[in-house]
């Protein structure tokens, strides 16, 4: 149950309670909804999917974000949901074993503190916290947004028209809210030199609580058994110097591109490519970061991947989403108007975002070397890690000191 403070801010147009529409019900949307309710806002969340999306790949909650979920009271249940992988095994291009390491050694996480959970488990925990206090509109989305002096007039795809004091886009990397406010994504999506395909396939390998990763220069294939399940998360990642053309946005073209790139690959890759061809949950995308000079315009702001996706290559997307949602709600709870609040949000979070986005550069992801030379260097580093003590946690993961929540 959420304890509701009284809003201390004069955001509300006509009614006494300021209203906020959040677009997107994954991680940053429900997290923001929780903290805004704590601050006394009336919150509506619109999600284009017909229901909360479950399942999905594993995500990490680290450093500052662990403190956010602790303050939300869901740390114990997330510890229960922790995937607790036992090892990461790296394979040479002929399929022989290069090195077997503990997951935290590879990710720079802190064993016993940082969490790895299925994305759907985190989304479900966040949703359960707010569903009785927040209006959810599933199967709908924003069609038009018009800002006036008094508020934001919203027309939904489903035909409804409503006015809110504020709107926040929590609608992910390819945010439509961002497009409404600032124009096409290309201006802000910084391509990192990789494309990837993820899908599930049967666990015919007997893998349990472990990751296997095969590499050749510019190519990587991974199988991840997040439990002892019958299914594996399969992942095919490859280097492409320029982002693929728009024609590659159809699923058939994506499948052909991936199959072509991995045509001569060893290990279990041929079976993975075959599974990808038949997968009904294939997700193909480019690895990129959203970098924007500002995260708001007027009464509309962005949070999470919509504003500052760091890419899966950093493993920090969910952590930035949780920490960003907390900071945005706290800024709205403490500042006299939305202009001051959005400025404080940016000022409070920008450095943290920049540090995390700097964890990876174009074509330089440690786990995905793009040349034979870089692969040899990476392999030497992995072999050394087998005998070295675990590295210290990455400073970027905990670089944001959270203020006490104002409400
Ligand atoms: C393959 C992959 C692996 C990843 N691995 C990791 C990892 O290991 N660690 C990590 O921390 N992060 C990882 N991430 C990133 C992580 O999933 C995101 O950073 C995080 O989920 C961001 O949360 P978000 O709520 O801001 O956006 P999203 O999770 O993208 O959610 C956006 C929501 O908005 C909805 N939506 C979209 N458009 C509209 C619209 N027009 N109207 C209404 N709703 C809309 C979507 O349906 C979705 O529910 C990975 C991402 C991918 C793709």
From TrEMBL:
Signal peptide: none annotated. One of its GO terms (molecular function) is monooxygenase activity. InterPro entries: FAD-bd, FAD/NAD-bd_sf, FAD_aromatic-hydroxylase. It comes from Streptomyces albiaxialis. PANTHER family: MONOOXYGENASE, OXIDOREDUCTASE-RELATED. The lineage of its organism: Bacteria, Bacillati, Actinomycetota, Actinomycetes, Kitasatosporales. Gene3D superfamilies: D-Amino Acid Oxidase, subunit A, domain 2, FAD/NAD(P)-binding domain. The keyword Oxidoreductase applies. Pfam families: FAD_binding_3. This is FAD-dependent monooxygenase. It comes from the Bacteria. Residues 19-340 form the FAD-binding domain. Keywords: Monooxygenase, Oxidoreductase.
């Amino acid at each position: 149950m959420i304890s509701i403070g009284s809003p201390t801010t004069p955001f509300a147009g006509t009614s006494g309670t300021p209203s906020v529409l959040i677009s997107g019900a994954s991680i940053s949307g429900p997290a923001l909804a929780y903290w805004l309710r704590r601050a006394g806002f009336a919150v509506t969340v619109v999600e284009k999917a017909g229901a909360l999306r479950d399942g999905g790949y594993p995500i990490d909650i680290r450093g500052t974000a662990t403190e956010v979920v602790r303050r939300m009271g869901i740390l114990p249940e997330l510890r229960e949901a922790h995937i607790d992988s036992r090892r990461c095994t790296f394979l040479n291009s002929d399929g022989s074993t290069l090195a077997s390491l503990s997951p935290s050694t590879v990710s720079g996480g802190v064993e016993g503190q940082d969490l790895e959970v299925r994305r759907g488990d985190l989304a479900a925990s966040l949703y359960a916290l707010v569903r009785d206090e927040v209006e959810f509109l599933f199967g709908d989305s924003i069609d038009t947004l018009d800002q006036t002096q008094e508020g934001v007039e919203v027309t939904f795809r489903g035909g409804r028209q409503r006015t809110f004091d504020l709107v926040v886009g929590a609608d992910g990397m390819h945010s439509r809210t961002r497009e409404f406010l600032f124009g096409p994504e290309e201006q802000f999506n910084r391509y990192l030199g990789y494309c990837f395909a993820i899908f599930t396939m049967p666990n015919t390998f007997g893998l349990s609580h472990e990751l296997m990763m095969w590499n050749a220069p510019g190519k990587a294939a991974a199988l991840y058994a997040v439990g002892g399940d019958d299914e594996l998360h399969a992942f095919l990642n490859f280097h492409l110097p320029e982002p693929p053309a728009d024609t590659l946005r159809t699923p058939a073209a994506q499948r052909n591109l991936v199959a072509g790139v991995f045509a001569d690959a060893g290990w279990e890759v041929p079976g993975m490519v075959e599974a990808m061809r038949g997968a009904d949950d294939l997700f193909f995308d480019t690895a990129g970061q959203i970098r924007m000079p500002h995260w708001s315009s007027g009464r509309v702001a962005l949070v999470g991947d919509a504003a500052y996706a760091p890419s899966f290559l950093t493993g920090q997307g969910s952590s930035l989403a949780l920490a960003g949602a907390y900071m945005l709600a706290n800024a709205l709870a403490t500042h006299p108007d939305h202009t001051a609040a959005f400025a404080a949000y940016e000022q409070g979070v920008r450095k943290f975002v920049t540090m995390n986005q700097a964890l990876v550069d174009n074509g330089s992801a440690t786990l995905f070397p793009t040349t034979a030379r870089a692969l040899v260097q990476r392999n030497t580093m992995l072999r050394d890690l087998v005998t070295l003590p675990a590295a210290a946690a990455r400073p970027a993961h905990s670089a944001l000191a959270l203020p006490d929540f104002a409400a």
